Hints:
By secondary structure, the protein is α+β, with helices and mostly antiparallel strands. It is 17% helix and 46% strand. It has a 6-stranded mixed sheet. The chain has a 5-stranded mixed barrel with strand order 1-2-3-5-4. A 3-stranded mixed sheet has the order 10-11-13. Strand 1 and strand 2 form a beta hairpin. Helix 2 runs parallel beside helix 3. It starts with 5 loop residues before the first strand and ends in a 5-residue tail after the last strand.
Amino acid sequence: MKYQNIKEAKFLSRPNRFIAQIEIDGNMEVCHVKNTGRCRELLIPGADIFVRQADNPNRKTKYDLIGVYKGDRLVNIDSQVVNQVFHEWVLSSNYFPGISLIKPEYRYKHSRFDFYLETEHQKILVEVKGVTLEEGNVAMFPDAPTERGVKHINELVESMGDGYQPYIAFIIQMKDVAYFTPNGKTHREFADALKAAAEKGVKVLALDCIITPDSIVAGDFVPVRL
C-alpha cells in the first residue's frame, strides 16, 4: 500500500477521537484521526507524525493522520488501511493456495466479516484487526474494550458448524516486535474469548509490517501467545 501527498508534522493535542491538532509548515491545523482507538502511548504532545494531505481541498480537515514515531519506531495508525494490507498479502503470499474467490465485507449471521475466501476445498471467513499498541516490545490488542470484537470471535466459532474455516488476522502496524498477545489487562473478556476460540479451531495469525512514511506492506509472521 502506497500513500500519496505525505508530509511531516508535529502532534499537539487530540480534542476528541476523530481529530487532532497538529503543527505543519509553521501553522496549526486540524487533522482527521483515522484510528478511533486510544493510542495514548503514541499521540503525545510534540511527537513526530506523518500526515496525508486530503485530495479534496474543500474538506474541513485538510490532513489525515497516518503515522507516528514512538522513539525510533515508526507506527502506522491508519486503521482503515489494514484490510488492504491483508488483501495484498493474500494475493502475493500463497498462504491460501488455490483461491478462486476473495469477497470483502462478507455478511454472516449478525456480523459483517472483513473477508470471505474460497478455495476448492475450503470456505474461509477472516476478521482483520489492526494493532498499534506495543509495550515492552510486545504487540497487543485491543487498546480499548471492544464488545464488537468479542461478538465477532463468538460468531467465528459458530461458523465452523456451517462448514467455514475461520481466521482472525492481527496486522501489527509496526516492525520488530517479539510476539503478539491479547490485551487481557484492558479487556479480559476479549482475551479469554480469543483463547477459547483458538482451542476450538479458529486460526489466529499475526503479521508485522514494513513501514515507511508513505507505505505499509505485510512483513513476517509474529509468534502468537494466547
